[in-house]
Amino acid sequence: MTAARRFQTKLLLLALCAATVACDSNTSNVPQRPAPNVLLILADDLGFSDLGAYGSEIPTPNFDALAQSGTLLTNFYANATCAPSRSMLLSGMDSHAVGFGFNPSAASRLPILRGEAGYSGDWPAHINSFVSQFSEAGYYTFMAGKWHQGAAEIATPYARGFQKAFYLQDGGASHFADATGQTSTAPVATYYDEGTQVSALPENFYSSEFYVNKVMDYLDQRESDDARPFFGYLAFTAPHWPLQVPDAWLDRFAGVYDEGWETIRANRIESAKVLGLIPEDASIPPFPAALGSWSDLDAEQRQKEARRMELYAAMIAYMDAQLGRLVAHLKATGEYD
């Protein structure tokens, strides 16, 4: 996690559209709209102000375009950690009810909770995800990206309503083909493709690009006479650590963060005020003392931290570019609602 965003809150972005279609005998004479296509996009460890629509200096034109045509959330609840927040998003319930009272990786640090109700790290069989409801309503459902909702058979994407899935089972991994895991208990990342564990990723694998390619593949795999609407879940692993981008993007933000994190924070707050996301007279909390002041760092430390912020920004901008490819594909195929 980069120092520039440790004070940021987690953002869950619901993109394109989400709707429920229903009818009963009292509305039989009312013309019914076609069921909409739905795409849920989740970025991993993205800070609240890391998108241009929320005041960021990072160019994110494709996310911003979705925000401009939709609704921005400025006050909402989300769990502060990965697997619990995903369980809440997919179930609509408190994370403890779904077995994710903590991140599974925390089990070794909190052995007293291991095996306790609410801390199993796997979905209970009796709890559905909202994706199951889409599937039961006749939707074509698929996902690509990070799952992190348990390894048991009842916890797979297929058991939760997805008909097709390429997913990272773990909480994090290298964004490249080496598939290095993030913890000593999972030194090699575990990917599944259509229910089969992946033995090797393509040599040119980079997470954000590959996940978008998979989503487009799932859309294109349908038969020409398949008129079902779709529900897709695109769960990016960017910009989650490790900070990695394709070579061509390594220096896209060179020098942008040399002024330090306090300056970036102040600029983002002012931008958020201009955008109307923060009241002009809002009282802004002091900068967290635990993070330290930029002026207290020596030249080598500043260079290191600025470089981290550059790479983090590049990951977000690259992710946005991949989203742009997907939106263009949906528009070209007439499936962008």
Number of helices: 6
- Inertia-based shape: globular
CATH superfamily grouping: Alkaline Phosphatase, subunit A
CATH class: Alpha Beta
Listing every helix as H and every strand as E from the N terminus to the C terminus, the arrangement reads EHHHEEEEEEHEHH
Plain-language structure description:
It contains six helices and eight strands, in the order E-H-H-H-E-E-E-E-E-E-H-E-H-H. The two termini are 35 Å apart. It has a six-stranded mixed beta sheet with strand order 1-8-2-3-6-7, sandwiched between helices. A two-stranded antiparallel ribbon has the order 4-5. Helix 4 (207-220) packs parallel to helix 6 (299-332). Strand 4 and strand 5 (186-188) form a beta hairpin. The protein has 337 residues and is of the alpha/beta class. The chain has one domain: 3-Layer(aba) Sandwich (Alkaline Phosphatase, subunit A), CATH 3.40.720.10.
Descriptive labels:
Alkaline Phosphatase, subunit A, single chain, 337 residues, alpha/beta, disordered N terminus, 26% helix, 6 helices
Summarize the structure.
With 337 residues, the protein is α/β, with parallel strands linked by helices.
Secondary-structure topology with pairs:
Blueprint: E1 38-42, H1 61-68, H2 82-91, H3 130-136, E2 140-146, E3 164-168, E4 180-183, E5 186-188, E6 191-193, E7 196-197, H4 207-220, E8 230-235, H5 261-274, H6 299-332
Parallel strand pairs: 1-8, 2-3, 2-8
Antiparallel strand pairs: 3-6, 4-5, 6-7
